[in-house]
Specification:
six-stranded mixed β-sheet, 6 helices, 6 strands
Length: 184
Amino acid sequence: MTPHYRPEFEAALRLFARISEALHLRGLPRPVLVGGAAAELWSTSALTTGDFDICTPAQPELEEEMQRFGFVRPSGAGQLLKGWIHPNLKLGFEVVADVPMDGNVDAAHIRLVRPVGEGALFRVISVEDLIADRMGQYASGTARDRFDQARLLLALHPDADRDYLDRRIREESCGDFGLEDLQD
């Protein structure tokens, strides 16, 4: 069964895949999708986002490709000044780090994704690392809604690697939480 995303998010995924492919063809690593956009991807838009958080060690080259694909830096009062926006998508794109989650993500768990109807690929953190990220944010006390997001993501992915997931939750929450905290 084909996942169903909201149209603007699906369009943004296709564009991100093309940018990722352009970097790959230049011999550079594909950027990695993290944060809210990864949550929307793994939840098939049950969770939604207004921005794409990206990790890449090749930020200048990524930004060159983004400009080539029509992205602009917003300007003016009340605009996000650190990121980029595509005028047709109305979703912000921002490089948040060189590597996902301070390098704590097991590279073997980063997934390659091909959006429906697209020939290009992009990388995204695994659902396990995303759940761990949500639990780390929840544990910090700054994002109480992340617990519900983590539970939803786990419910949508019952085939998740539970050993890896438990280890990553413990790492991201400084040992305060584990997989058992998400289970009924």
